[in-house]
Amino acid sequence: MKDIVLIATAVILTLAAAGAIVRIAVGPSLLDRVLASDVLLGIVGAALAIDMAVNRHLNNLVLLVALTLIGFIGSVTVARFVSDRRGQANDS
Amino acid sequence: MTPDATGVDAVIDAVTAVFLVLGALMSLTATIGLLRFPDLMSRMHAATKPQVLGLFLLLAGIGLQMRQWWVWPVLAVAWIFQLLTVPVSAHMVGRAGYRTKHLHPELLSVDELEAVVRRAASEQEEQTEAGAPKDR
Prior knowledge:
The complex is a heterodimer. Chain A contains 3 helices and no strands.
């Protein structure tokens, strides 16, 4: 049971992380990349939570909360200082 | 998880397994939305919502496996923290995306912000025409 759950969640989260990294690479705009890196951070948090649940410990719980805080500060900061450097609008 | 679980242990382990796999699938859903949707606003819709629910399922799995009552308030705090920060950052990203025109206006059914932005712009224009100093 433990191995099945671990393998299944590992495959799912790997696919999800690969998709998020593709979106970070493709863009096309800065805000898309910020959004995708936020999703990637959520996937890392999900992996930490699954490790805690399967192995029955709470060592990563503080790290999980800290990750949420860092993602929040990061995306708010980038969103605050983003500016439009493209020539024409609406070609995202 | 207990190896070779029987009785109540087996039931709790099965429920936990379902929660964990569903929670991981929520992350995959967010990524699929991120890859397939056409512009920033719809991508944001897919990216911000499922992961909060997915984290709830994963934290519920932790609570089921730990089997101690004091764990649940701690997990609730971790989840509520996520619930408070995600909408704020999504609001900031969406606002910046609207201002820098990262959207397809023809895909919107209602645009309530447009009138507000236009009014603010015209007020600013009047102020500069009257020679008043721009306050920012």
